[in-house]
Amino acid sequence: MTSPACELPRYARPLQPWNPKRWYYDTMRGLLRSIGRASDGVSIGERYGYDSGVMLEYVYRNTASGKGWFGRAVDRAFLSAPGWRGIRERGDIMRHTLRREIDAIAARDGGVRLLDVACGGGRYVLEALALEGAPVESALLRDYRRENIESAEALARQLGVVARFGQADAFSDEDLARVTPEPNLIVVSGLHEIIADDALVARHFHQLARIAERPATLVFTIQPRHPQIEFIARVLKSHTGDLWVMRLRPWEKTRAWAEAAGFKIRSIAMDRQNIFGVIVADLA
Length: 284
Description:
Blueprint: H1 20-32, H2 40-48, H3 53-61, H4 68-79, H5 82-109, E1 112-116, H6 123-130, E2 136-143, H7 146-159, E3 164-167, H8 173-177, E4 185-188, H9 198-211, E5 216-222, H10 229-235, H11 251-260, E6 263-270, E7 277-283
Parallel strand pairs: 1-2, 1-4, 2-3, 4-5
Antiparallel strand pairs: 5-7, 6-7
């Protein structure tokens, strides 16, 4: 039996066969998986999942490509969706935030020991580290999926950034216990938003607090709303092959979990559409 924490939200529950909304979403899903593949972005989403690190790397590049003029036109419309625009703005906020925190921690502690627990393609962290004079003693980027690690390693080589990479489960006590050196800057970007189980996310803040070298800073993301939440849940597939069901959580709930683990919220920065947020929290 599915636990209450993992039950499908209303916008993802199956529709009756006679419901016109079901006809619409079935049609859109069929179009994406047929003529939509003329778009390179749609092809990547169908192959790896629309929430995958490979997909996000393509969204960040924001260059329409596909088969002929039709494929490029479809791709431009795809890349201009509200969620992808918000993702790119979140990236700008994250890069600015990381560079600011790296400088502040270096001034305070003399060295930055950074851990990204679910790096995806690693772009946020690696571009922040690529800026001249980034005072980082150690940078460890991890992800559950091998293709994301390979993508991050390739980007690091391209940017000339020295970092370590590893395949690991961000929620595994055993994997987290193997992190060395103890980090004083931890990054969790885009991870909690794809996890259905509230208890797993709440526990994660405690896991991160246990492995941090205090004083430490946690930079993490939130997603309290999305204007296309039902379309995504009924049409787009995730990296697991199932439909991509986002979990929208009120900021107050996530804040309570972080504070219960000992983190003190210092700043909140939202994108202009108020879809995504970047949070900075301190652990004394």
